[in-house]
Specification:
This protein has 153 residues and is α+β, with helices and mostly antiparallel strands. Helices cover 36% and strands 22% of the residues. It has one domain: Cytidine Deaminase, domain 2 (3-Layer(aba) Sandwich). A 5-stranded mixed β-sheet has the order 2-1-3-4-5. The termini are far apart. The structure holds tetrahydrodeoxyuridine. The site of tetrahydrodeoxyuridine has 13 residues, from helix 3. Keywords: Hydrolase, Metal-binding, Zinc.
Length: 153
């Protein structure tokens, strides 16, 4: 089985124990090798399992206009959308040495938008749910609640 296939098997319902994290990390490492990082020389690779069992990945893509850099999570979310959408159930992020990396704050927000309930992240301090890495998050439900409140006025 490919590393992507191994990572996905039995993972649609999330739960850290149902994910082949070694296989998912292997996908992230493969993605990290593709990073375009002439400025920071800090390659990042990410991989995730989608609720339909798809395995997707991403790498950072930098720009001479530094602030336009795309984090690896940005390319992962683009891939999610381009390959059929869905919700993320498991996620891992590695640096150029293969060490687990914590997604930056902006990318936690990006991941939150597309997370399945109880999405699990492999972090520097163990497996964490999306709600643990971005507590009380602003998100799609905030906007829906606001709209409903406005209609009721
Ligand atoms: N980076 C990511 O790709 N994801 C993160 O969550 C943290 C930072 C990238 C952006 C930039 O190309 C490099 O790491 C150094 O900041």
């Amino acid at each position: 089985m490919s590393s992507a296939g191994a990572a996905a098997s039995g993972a649609a319902s999330a739960g850290a124990e149902s994910v082949d994290w070694a296989a998912l990390r292997a996908v992230a490492l493969e993605a990290m090798e593709k990073a375009y990082v002439p400025y920071s020389k800090f390659p990042v690779g990410v991989a995730a399992i989608v609720d339909d069992g798809r395995v997707i990945s991403g790498c950072n893509v930098e720009n001479a206009s530094y602030g336009l850099t795309l984090c690896a999570e940005c390319t992962l979310v683009s891939s999610l959308t381009m390959t059929g959408g869905g919700k993320l159930v498991a996620f891992t992020c590695v640096d150029g040495h293969g060490n687990t990396l914590m997604p930056c704050g902006r990318c936690r927000q990006l991941l939150f938008e597309h997370s399945a309930e109880g999405m699990v992240l492999d972090t520097v301090s163990g497996f964490k749910t999306i709600d643990e890495v971005i507590p009380d998050a602003f998100g799609p439900r905030t906007l829906v609640a606001y709209r409903e409140e406005s209609l009721a006025e």
